[in-house]
Write a structure and sequence with these properties.
alpha+beta; four-stranded antiparallel β-sheet; disordered N terminus; Chitinase A, domain 3
Length: 459
């Protein structure tokens, strides 16, 4: 199967830009540069320390034009950092304050460093392969047009709104160029090599079935990576500042797109429905005490800090629902033992060629006297006893032994099994999720290795 459009950026959500803050009247950013102050000298081996923010009324000196960092001799200027800060504030819909300005500056610089590393790698690989891996202006224009459409505006109006907040169009364009290029490179280099086996899908289905009686939670997340933030203390402080902004009305999806280090950032932090055991134990414990609509406190885990928004919850233990298909041979109740045995042999031969529900109809059509049918979904308690035994005992994707009824002999294939009211993922959805998780992990490790090998200096 060819996989397309499945990779969610694991770094930040520039391509999923939200301009809700613009439409709602975002704060003016004319003073961001003045409020930033020059960056403090970093401690050896530590990430750049935040600038000491000044209150707007203090009329502090603007951040002077100069070099803030070098990435393998590429320069990141103070202008670059200020522009990225403005873009981040506007797109995340947050209010810049004395408390959060330092974290905004750090996140802006971290994003710029990552993008420089990515673009350097793409140019190096492109030179070796004699192929341009950098997204073209047309691709960037198309991405901006898509963003504008998703926000019910035009590309020109979007850029005009950003300009009114002090964000140059080149700032957005270069962020998108890096993200499009890197996403395409990761997918192109590794996507065709990744395979999601049927055993992985069946294991996922079995786990889903085993957990179907547990409580379920529909959540969104922001994950602050402690390593990337510069330590757990910094990650906890940054998470608390984000919570403060969310409580003041910043859209969760927009904050997740710009600040979360999880692959779900590209989807606005949307995780979907989870059961206990899918998230770290610390998150599971917090979910048990949240009510729908609530925002968690910062949740420290092994490698970072989570912020969880609980959208909805539902209890487990609902009725079991199965989706069945059958292949049957009509045999009257009083048929001879020889006729029954012949039909049974025919169905067993057919069963050996079946791959669950996928090819049942096609294979049955090749066997004279066999009729295939889709039995649809039903609660197991409503099935006839013989069919109920198959529905309960056959694994998802499996096929029963021939079942004798008054109407004939039947092979029953179990296509799906879940509790009523449960969000069920089909075969392709499971494959897509597992594929995306693998690709996102590769991208994260690739960028981590580039950081470890790079010479990065902050000033």
């Amino acid at each position: 199967m060819r996989h397309t459009g499945r990779f969610a950026a694991a770094r930040h959500g520039g391509a999923a830009l939200c301009v809700l803050a613009l439409a709602a009247g975002a704060p003016s950013l004319a003073q961001v540069a003045a409020d930033s102050g020059p960056p403090s000298p970093p401690t050896a081996g530590a990430p750049p320390a935040p600038a000491a923010p000044q209150a707007p009324a203090a009329a502090s000196q603007p951040l002077s034009e100069g070099v803030v960092a070098t990435v393998n001799d590429d320069i990141i200027s103070s202008y670059d950092v200020i522009q990225r800060m403005r873009l981040l504030i506007v797109t995340a819909g947050i209010q810049p304050t004395d408390d959060n300005l330092g974290e905004i500056q750090r996140e802006s610089l971290r994003s710029l460093v990552d993008e420089h590393l990515e673009m350097q790698e793409l140019r190096r690989e492109g030179k070796e392969q004699k192929f341009d891996l950098i997204a073209s202006n047309t691709e960037v224009d198309d991405e901006i047009a898509d963003i504008a459409r998703s926000n019910n505006t035009s590309a020109d109006r979007l850029l005009t709104q950003l300009a009114a907040q002090g964000v140059g169009s080149d700032t957005l364009r270069e962020q998108l160029r890096a993200e499009i290029s890197w996403r395409g490179w990761i997918r192109g280099r590794y996507g065709s090599r990744l395979t999601v086996g049927e055993d992985q899908i069946k294991a996922f289905q079995s786990r889903q079935q085993a957990e179907s009686g547990k409580p379920q939670y529909e959540i969104s997340e922001v994950f602050v990576d402690a390593t990337r933030a510069g330590g757990m203390d910094t990650a906890m402080k940054g998470a608390q500042q984000l919570i403060d902004q969310l409580q003041k009305g910043a859209p969760f999806a927009a904050v997740a797109k710009q600040f979360s280090n999880s692959p779900t950032a590209a989807n606005g932090g949307d995780v979907g429905w989870v059961t206990p055991g899918e998230m770290p134990p610390e998150v599971d414990q917090a979910l048990g005490s949240l009510r729908p609509g609530q925002l968690s406190a910062p949740i420290p885990v092994k490698d970072g800090v989570y912020i969880i928004h609980l959208k909805e919850r539902r209890a487990g233990g609902a009725a079991m629902v199965v989706n069945l298909k059958q292949a049957a041979i009509a045999i009257p109740k009083g048929a001879s033992e020889a006729d029954v045995a012949a039909a049974q042999a025919k169905l067993l031969a057919l069963r050996a060629r079946l791959k669950g529900c996928d090819n049942l109809a096609a294979e049955a059509a090749n066997v004279p006297g066999v009729v295939a049918g889709d039995l649809g979904e039903a609660e197991t308690k409503d099935l006839a006893p013989a069919f109920r035994a198959a529905a309960d005992g056959v694994p998802v994707g499996g096929v029963s032994d021939p079942i004798r009824t008054d109407a004939g002999l039947h092979l029953v294939a179990v296509c799906n099994r879940h509790h009523s009211g449960e969000e069920v993922m089909d075969h392709d959805q499971i494959e897509n999720r597992l594929y995306g998780q693998q690709l996102a992990m590769i991208a994260k490790r690739y960028l981590r290795d580039l950081r470890n090998q790079a010479t990065i200096e902050t000033r």
